[in-house]
């Protein structure tokens, strides 16, 4: 196979015959990274996942060298689960909805794929987003229920409230907002010799626990605090927001809102969280 990227001369002159793909690979946590070039046949309506499927099936570089299949993650294939998130041509986004035709319009020479930048790489394009889920735990991003028996209909929410909450409820925990945030710094720890899996998990939990949680958990705290049942944990959520790594760590760069695929009004949520945090801190001051 050769690395040429010839343009189709006959029936579909606007499309190349081949799609060149450059993938940033990493064989495991903490391993060195390296670029690898692949080439797949162009087909109509491809997305980055279908390109990756062909790359995995070929298991050979554009130079013809046999390689292990590139690893990536995906689930729903319709921008709902967030698991396929990666950096495509420099932009953090879901690869299942990254259409090849659109990408080639911007750069016909190649498509560049790399893992998200703020999360530890597990392998190739798969990252460990534990810290994001821990952030959701920090703010108790759930509605508490007492049991599984039928408790009848929940409290009603006004239309205005529903309209405010619905956009926030669309968060799929993809992590784009964290990856793009200048205040969200990558934390990557490695298991020490002799350390058990449990000790390593505890050490990670501690390291993540006081660092900036990022926009998604802040926005989820706002969502659940505005829920008529969820707000029974409102105080605990606000405590988490005023703790180190909470809403004060936001530098208001607004990158998060620019990259959120669900167009969640994150800066509005951050503003609401900030006001709730201020009111709570003042109340605590006067109560003490
Ligand atoms: S507004 Fe805050 S959370 Fe959003 S990107 Fe900026 S610093 Fe990060
Ligand atoms: S707020 Fe948007 S960018 Fe952030 S995790 Fe949720 S869906 Fe993804
Ligand atoms: S596979 Fe679920 S968002 Fe892409």
Automatic annotation (TrEMBL):
GO molecular function terms noted in the UniProt entry: 2 iron, 2 sulfur cluster binding; 3 iron, 4 sulfur cluster binding; 4 iron, 4 sulfur cluster binding; electron transfer activity; metal ion binding; succinate dehydrogenase (quinone) activity
Gene3D superfamilies listed in its UniProt record: 3.10.20.30, Alpha-helical ferredoxin
SUPFAM superfamilies, A to Z: 2Fe-2S ferredoxin-like (SSF54292), alpha-helical ferredoxin (SSF46548)
Keywords: 2Fe-2S, 3Fe-4S, 4Fe-4S, Iron, Iron-sulfur, Metal-binding, Oxidoreductase, Tricarboxylic acid cycle
Enzyme Commission number(s) of this protein: 1.3.5.1
Pfam families for the chain: Fer2_3, Fer4_8
Chain segments annotated as transmembrane: none
Cofactor: [3Fe-4S] cluster; [4Fe-4S] cluster; [2Fe-2S] cluster
Keyword Oxidoreductase: yes
GO biological process: respiratory electron transport chain; tricarboxylic acid cycle
Enzyme kind, highest EC tier: oxidoreductase
Domain 4Fe-4S ferredoxin-type: 162-192
Alphabetized PANTHER family for the sequence: SUCCINATE DEHYDROGENASE [UBIQUINONE] IRON-SULFUR SUBUNIT, MITOCHONDRIAL, SUCCINATE DEHYDROGENASE IRON-SULFUR PROTEIN
Sequence similarity: Belongs to the succinate dehydrogenase/fumarate reductase iron-sulfur protein family.
Protein's UniProt name: succinate dehydrogenase
Originating organism: Aureliella helgolandensis
Lineage: Bacteria, Pseudomonadati, Planctomycetota, Planctomycetia, Pirellulales
């Amino acid at each position: 196979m050769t690395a040429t990227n010839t343009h189709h001369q006959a029936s579909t002159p606007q499309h190349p015959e081949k799609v060149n793909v450059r993938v940033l690979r990493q064989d495991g946590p903490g391993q060195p990274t390296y670029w690898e070039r692949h080439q797949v046949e162009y087909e109509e309506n491809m997305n980055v996942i279908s390109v990756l499927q062909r790359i995995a099936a070929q298991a050979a570089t554009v130079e013809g060298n046999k390689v292990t299949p590139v690893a990536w993650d995906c689930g729903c294939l319709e921008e709902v689960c967030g698991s396929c998130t990666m950096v495509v041509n420099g932009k953090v986004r879901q690869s299942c909805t990254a259409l090849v035709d659109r990408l080639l319009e911007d750069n016909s020479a190649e498509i560049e794929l790399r893992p998200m930048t703020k999360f530890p790489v597990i392998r190739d394009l798969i990252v460990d987003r534990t810290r994001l889920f821990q952030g959701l735990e920090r703010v108790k991003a759930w509605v508490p229920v007492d049991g599984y028996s039928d408790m009848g209909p929940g409290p009603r929410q006004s239309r205005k409230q529903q309209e405010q909450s619905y956009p926030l409820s669309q968060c799929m925990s993809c992590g784009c907002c964290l990856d793009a945030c200048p205040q969200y710094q990558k934390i990557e720890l490695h298991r020490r010799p002799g350390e058990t899996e449990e000790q390593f998990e505890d050490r990670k939990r501690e390291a993540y626990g006081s660092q900036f949680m990022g926009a998604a958990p802040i926005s989820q705290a706002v969502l659940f605090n505005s829920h008529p049942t969820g707000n029974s944990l409102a105080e605990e959520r606000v405590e988490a927001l005023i703790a180190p790594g909470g809403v004060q760590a936001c530098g208001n760069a607004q990158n998060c809102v620019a990259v959120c695929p669900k167009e969640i009004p994150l800066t509005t949520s951050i503003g609401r969280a900030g006001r709730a945090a201020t009111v709570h801190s003042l109340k605590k001051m006067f109560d003490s």
